Amino acid sequence: MQKYNFHPKAASRFASALTSLKTLKNSSLVLSFLKESGFSASQMEKILKSWPELLSVNLENIVKPKIKIFQEFGFSANDIVDIILKEPSVLHSSANKRFIPSLTVLRGLLGSTAEVAKFLKISGWYLKSDLDSSLLPNIKLLHNYGIPMKKINWLMRYFPRFILQNPKTMKKLVEKADRLGADRSSKMFIHAVLIVSSLSNETLELKKKTFRDMGFSEDDILRVFRTQPYVFATSERKIRKIKEVVLATGKYDLSCIVNNPTAVTRSIEKRYKPRFQVLEILEGKNLITNWPGFPTLFKMTDKNFFEKFVRPYSDEVGEVFVAKGGLSGKRQV
């Protein structure tokens, strides 16, 4: 182990796992091959910490064929290292049943080896999955519901596990979103599917009740689900708290939230409270006569709010705004 420059503690731990002379010889062959393939000592340490069994696998039958397949598909040495670092156990997946079929499917979907490499550096476990019985049927289903390939690729990148679920489950989720009123032709349809996948029927009904209590009609709730489904990801507690904070100003009423439902997705501590306190101070000192309209208030970026309501009155409100967390980054007051 010493010749690979492992950290002493790591080397001792790896050595203790070698129970026979045969295993010791095998581990030396595996490590030497990985080193020749571009893996540094620290990278090999990281792999062995998550998958120590690598030291005892057959180099010729298990490890070498996978590296060769990567190379034949056009992956660079750095790409191969990064992918294996992310998911070392892919080396143990079946070459013919998983590895090659998965790489073939992914290149067909993503268009190039470079894009596949980028994807696998995040979701390397796709090489251990049966994409023919999960990913491809789900893609076909989503296509049938009018979801374009561009959106499906987005789904793969940002919700990789979601699109690999059982096709029967996916079908139920898509049908549920459709039944609840999501518009198939809208780019928000897939977001509606994601939302229903994360909420039980009971939780969904609780959210609807919370919206009703705030003055939303059934048509309003349907409109939100169709056009801004991610609003349903906001907890009932936060929705009620935003209602409380907004109404406490005396400047806005419930219709402001009903007409601007995405308002419930904004931060209470970083957006509403700092801005409300600044406006209260400015009004109290007769520096402003009117508060901005509610849509302007909650949609305005930190920079724009700062330039309009803080910088011109920095002596009065600058420290308050910064102290209350109203700036997402440092800015000279």
Automatic annotation (TrEMBL):
Belongs to the mTERF family. This is Uncharacterized protein. GO terms for molecular function: nucleic acid binding. One of its GO terms (biological process) is DNA-templated transcription termination. Keywords: Transcription, Transcription regulation, Transcription termination, Transit peptide. Coiled coil: none annotated. It holds the Pfam family mTERF.
